[in-house]
Write a structure and sequence with these properties.
17 helices; Uridine Diphospho-n-acetylenolpyruvylglucosamine Reductase, domain 3; 4-stranded mixed β-sheet; single chain; Alpha-Beta Plaits; binds flavin-adenine dinucleotide; Uridine Diphospho-n-acetylenolpyruvylglucosamine Reductase, domain 2; globular; alpha+beta
Length: 463
């Protein structure tokens, strides 16, 4: 029983899917922001569920843990191995089935989110999960982190967009939960247990995804608002019927970063404003959207809820507006180090959270740059704190622990969550331990021990 014996057995039995070539390994061992650097003695890239099962059985026999990786876009470090064998799902990349009548597709876990969206589109339907990383992130990663994104407001998180999954459990058994039934009350729902489990209870190998009807018309608008309070008031005004599908908050500083640091991005407004909201209204019938938007924006202006608005007049303009939002994360990289949080509070409490967090940060670190942005409509704020000018990045990141304590204390005080959509990974496990309900943590540990007693699957994650 040793890692070496395990590697020898895997190599002997599956030589064509094993690699220790440094060039092939390299992109799997860094996270896109260079936050984590990993190492692995072996990358193994199975092409079928049966191969995944065989790998897990061999690892179990030798008690050698695995780290699972999909598209490597995760923001909590869980997909980066630290000496374990690395299992990549990149070759589990087939769309197995697409069914217009039942409104579902079955795809393997290494299919990218964009490919899943395209497969839905090909049968005239929509897979409504949408993230800036969609060209690279995978369905397995999306389900394992219960990803959110920009359309949660209308369609829900990844968890709500799946009928069931196929997975390999820690003992090497294949669980087939690829049902596409809309009703199935037959005891514990094992698929649900694996959603958001970050690869700790099973390796998802395929999923049956729920599709939606495509809207006939989408109107995208960017509005300028004076404050987060006004954004909440405007959201109440804009939330008519089931039309509102996206509601993203962008403060001025973020817009400046994007227009300065990312090529070909421009401020769509003639004047500067302190905050913006980017939103989509979707319609089942074509031809009424622009009138609906114009009426609603006019009354919002009259009621002093918004300061100005830009309504996209073409697909190109709509894409340009969305690009401003999608480039926010990348645009911060050149500015220096940023301490990031992905928190959620009830929608009505978002202004209070932003106010309290900004004050706390500026009181303690006077020249820092608070940057709250994100999925405001879900109460989900990506609360970033940029380093003060003149400070070394390393010195600022050394403050991360104390900054986190301050921010998460405010979140706790407001009854929120320290992880809205990115998960726990290795980044937040200490905070989870400290802040989560004790019964929840005990039950999570009991489940992990029952399903993976030897700690074969992602053993460093969550706990
Ligand atoms: C620019 C950018 C924008 C983003 N925007 C959003 C956003 O709006 N909303 C959001 O929620 N996230 C966002 N993310 C985070 C990330 O894209 C998501 O968490 C995504 O779901 C991760 O998918 P992945 O395939 O890259 O997973 P990875 O990064 O490879 O893995 C993430 C975790 O899932 C586990 N895992 C991966 N595949 C499997 C599998 N098949 N079975 C079991 N476990 C598995 C890994 O072990 C790891 O713990 C963003 C990231 C970037 C870089």
């Amino acid at each position: 029983m040793s890692l070496e014996n395990c590697i020898n057995e895997l190599r002997a039995k599956m030589p064509d899917i094993c690699s220790d070539d440094a060039d092939i390994l390299a992109p799997h061992l860094v996270e896109w922001r260079d936050r984590w650097q990993g190492s692995t003695p072996l990358l193994i890239s199975p092409k079928s569920t049966q191969e995944v099962a065989e790998i897990v059985k061999i690892c179990g026999k030798h008690k050698s843990p695995l780290t699972v990786q999909g598209g490597n876009t995760g923001l909590c470090g869980g997909q980066i191995p630290q000496g374990e064998i690395l299992l990549s799902t990149q070759r589990l990349n087939k769309i197995r089935h697409a069914d217009k009548d039942n409104m579902n597709i079955v795809c393997e876990s290494g299919v990218t989110l964009l490919e899943a969206q395209q497969a839905a589109n090909a049968i005239g339907l929509k897979f409504p999960l949408s993230l800036a990383s969609e060209g690279t992130c995978t369905i397995g990663g999306n389900l394992s982190t219960n990803a959110g994104g920009i359309q949660v407001l209308k369609y829900g998180t990844a968890k709500e967009l799946v009928f069931g999954v196929e997975a390999v459990l820690a003992n090497g058994e294949i669980y087939n939960g690829l049902s596409s039934l809309r009703k199935d009350n037959t005891g514990y729902d094992l698929s649900r247990l694996l959603l958001g489990a970050e690869g700790t209870l099973g390796i998802i190998t395929a999923a049956s995804l729920k599709l939606s009807a495509k809207p006939r018309e989408v109107v995208r608008v960017m509005v300028a608002v004076a404050s987060p309070e006004k954004a909440v008031a405007f959201m109440n005004h804009a939330r008519i019927g089931t039309h509102l599908a996206m509601f993203e908050f962008i403060p001025r500083l973020a817009l400046e970063y994007v227009t300065t640091n990312i090529p070909d991005q421009r401020d769509p407004f003639a004047n500067k404003h302190s905050n913006y909201v980017l939103l989509d209204w979707e319609f089942d019938q074509a031809g009424h959207g622009q009138d609906f938007a114009n009426d609603l924006l006019e009354t919002a202006l009259e009621q002093n809820l918004i300061e100005d608005a830009v309504v996209a007049q073409s697909e190109a303009q709509a894409a340009a507006l969305l690009n401003l939002r999608e480039n926010l994360s990348a645009s911060q990289k050149p500015v220096g180090a940023t301490v990031k949080h992905d928190i959620t509070v009830e929608l009505a409490k978002t202004p209070e959270f932003i106010k309290r967090a900004n004050k706390a940060m500026l009181d303690k670190y006077p020249d820092c740059h608070p940057l709250p942005f994100g999925h405001f409509g879900d109460g989900n704020i990506h609360y970033n704190v940029g380093q003060p000018k003149g400070m070394e990045s390393r010195d600022f990141m050394a403050l991360e622990g104390e900054i986190n304590e301050i921010i998460y204390d405010i979140v706790d005080d407001l009854g929120g969550s320290i992880s809205a959509e990115h998960g726990i990974g290795i980044l937040k496990k200490d905070q989870l331990e400290k802040r989560a309900d004790a019964a929840k943590m005990r039950t999570m540990r009991t489940l992990k021990t029952a399903l993976d007693p030897d700690g074969i699957l992602n053993p460093r994650i969550l706990f």
